[in-house]
Amino acid sequence: MTPIKAGFAVVRGNWNALRSRSCPRCGRGRLYEFSEVVEGTTYFAQGCNMCDFYEFTDSEAVSETLSVRRRQTLSALNEQGVREKLLRRYKWWSRIYLFASLLCVLLSLALLFNGNRYFGSAALLGMFVLVRAFLASYRFWQIREDRLFAPGAFKEWFKKGAWIV
Q1: 2-49: per-residue pLDDT in tens?
Q2: Same domain for 99 and 44
Q3: Could you tell me if residue 95 is inside a domain?
Q4: Does 67 reside within a domain?
Q5: Residues near 151 by Cβ (< 8 Å), separated by ≥ 6?
Q6: Which pick of 117, 119, 141, 151 has the fewest CB atoms within 10 Å?
Q7: Residue ranges of the alpha helices (H) in the chain?
Q8: Beta bridge partner(s), residue 4
Q9: What is the pTM of this model?
Q10: Same domain (yes/no): 54, 123
Q11: Same domain, yes or no: 14 and 77
Q12: Would you put residue 146 in left (φ > 0), alpha (ψ -120 to 50) or beta?
């Protein structure tokens, strides 16, 4: 097994452990959400990928794993000074990345007007840095609004337009 494949397996295992809980019956599998439509009614459930275990869930319910992670994270954020420190950090990084993306766009325009063929690279770098700025703004908004591990949080952030902090 190559080192890249081994590293990917570790990352995939960590992601699966975060997003889904282990099967209570076999202990080896993970529970994944699925839905079935029977006679016009949609039923939501979680099923194991290794055995035939499944359990029904409410359509509005957040999976148990995400609610546990949310409670753990919120309790850690409520410790003295942690929330304020993270808010300052994400606001700072958001502004730095926005400034850097603006510099990349200006550099791209200057290269374009001078006839240099690398203007596209500068523009692409500016777009990637802008995405990082939006990511830091999103994390700032999540912490400020207590919307960690909440379904639909990204959509709400996008609709509110809280992209620049």
Answers
A1: 878 888 888 887 776 776 777 888 878 888 778 888 888 888 888 888
A2: no
A3: yes
A4: no
A5: 62, 66
A6: 117
A7: 3-19, 64-77, 82-113, 119-145, 153-160
A8: none
A9: 0.62
A10: no
A11: no
A12: left
144/150 Cα distance (integer angstroms): 13
Dump pLDDT digits (tens) for 54-107.
Answer: 887 765 554 565 677 777 888 888 888 888 999 999 999 999 999 999 999 999
Residue 165 within a domain? no
Whether residues 51 and 90 share a domain: the answer is no
Residue 106 and residue 125 in one domain: yes
Burial class of 79 by CB neighbour count within 10 A (0 to 12, 13 to 18, 19+): exposed
Nearest to 150 by CA among 58, 21, 61: 61
3-class state of residue 81 by DSSP: coil
Q: Which sign does the torsion angle of CA 134, 140, 142, 148 carry?
A: positive
Q: Which residue bears the tokens 């003295």?
A: 80
8 A C-beta contact, residue 45 and residue 57: yes
| Kind of pairing between the strands at 54-57 and 31-38 | unpaired
Place of tokens 């203007």: 119
- The total of structural domains in the chain comes to 2
Domain membership flag for residue 66: no
The two tokens of residue 32 are 């994944």
Domain ranges, residue 55: 3-61
The count of residues in the chain is: 165
Could you give the angle at the alpha carbon of 122 between the alpha carbons of 119 and 125, nearest 5°?
Answer: 150
